[in-house]
Amino acid sequence: MESDSTSITETPSFVKPEEPPKYFGIDIDGTFYTGNEEAWEKNVEAFAEVRKKGYTPFFCTSRSLDSTLSLVGNDFVKKTGYNGCPGVYENGVFVYGDKDALYMNVLSRHFLNDFIRFLPEDSLNRVIFFQRDDSYSLVDTDPWIKTILKGNELPATQVKTLDEILNLDIIKIMIYSDPSLLVNLRKNVGFNAFMLHNNLFMISPLDLNKSLGINQLMENYGISPKDCGFIGDGHNDIEAMKFCNVSFAVANAPDEVKKHAKIVLDKTCDQGAVAEALKLTYGL
């Protein structure tokens, strides 16, 4: 944690808000989910207790709804009464209300065209464009990428022309690339790049992120967009941390992420950090 940051409040000085946020977004990987059984039980119990108090904790994650429910399991749903709705998924691509999807935020034709236009030709076989249920490429996909897609139960790519891809509802782009290529691309196109694996990145426009999803969800309920808490650990959580009036970073978050949260916890995801944040916020 950087000593010159004035925006970070250590956990011991946290004061419970007089009116706790009605909603509270919770990141999954590196934040809520943990292999530590004791910490997991604490997080699940706190999640359930907040709901009993009449507030709404919800998942705000890079995962899909199906992937999230598969990870947390049926016992979580039974104990908490929460089935993943409402929630913000795939870094703001999908926003769910109490029952159904409210928004599917697709990549604009303008962004897609600019991104593709500045790609080096020899990288095209390592770029995948995703719709909700299908994936596409401009040329035959690199065998290693095909292996990754298959291993993650993602759809095999279909080769499409540029015009065809521009006319599809593309929700995300995946690219296998040396980081230096992305640095050069950013000179011409603004985007966020989240590393999934070594040199494998998920690309999204700067304005498509978790804070967009939170804002849309709050507007759906007719309440102040900032009447929402948030906790996370990663670079894809920064916009949400800055956006929400009450935001936490877990202790295992990188320093660059911590400085954007209102409060930095002294507990990691494996120590029940989410339970601690909910306890502080809602007086459990």
**What is the overall silhouette?**
elongated
The total of beta strands comes to 15
Determine the strand fraction and express it as a percent band: 15-25%
Helix content: 25-40%
Overall number of domains: 2
Q: Flag low-confidence runs.
A: 1-9
User: How many whole angstroms does the radius of gyration measure?
Assistant: 19 Å
Q: Span between N and C termini?
A: 28 Å
| CATH level 1 class label of the largest domain | Alpha Beta
Strand order in the sheet with the most strands? 1-15-14-13-2-3-4-5-6
GO molecular function, one term: magnesium ion binding
Protein name: Haloacid dehalogenase-like hydrolase family member protein
Biased composition (Polar residues): 1-12
Keywords: Hydrolase
Task: Explain the overall architecture.
It is a single chain. The strands form two sheets. Strands 1-15-14-13-2-3-4-5-6 form a nine-stranded mixed beta sheet, with helices on both faces. It has a six-stranded mixed beta sheet with strand order 9-8-7-10-12-11, with no helix packed on it. Helices cover 35% and strands 21% of the residues. The protein has helices at residues 28-32, 37-52, 65-80, 109-117, 143-151, 162-166, 179-185, 210-220, 238-243, 255-258, 273-282, and strands at residues 9-10, 23-26, 56-60, 87-89, 94-96, 101-104, 127-130, 135-137, 157-159, 172-176, 191-197, 200-205, 228-232, 246-249, 263-264. Helix 2 packs parallel to helix 11. It has two domains: 9-104 and 209-282, Rossmann fold (3-Layer(aba) Sandwich), CATH 3.40.50; 109-205, Hypothetical Protein, Haloacid Dehalogenase-like Hydrolase, Chain: A, domain 2. The chain has 284 residues and is α/β, with parallel strands linked by helices. It contains eleven helices and 15 strands. InterPro entries: HAD-like_sf, HAD-SF_hydro_IIB, HAD_sf. It comes from Theileria equi strain WA. Its EC number is 3.1.3.23. It holds the Pfam family Hydrolase_3.
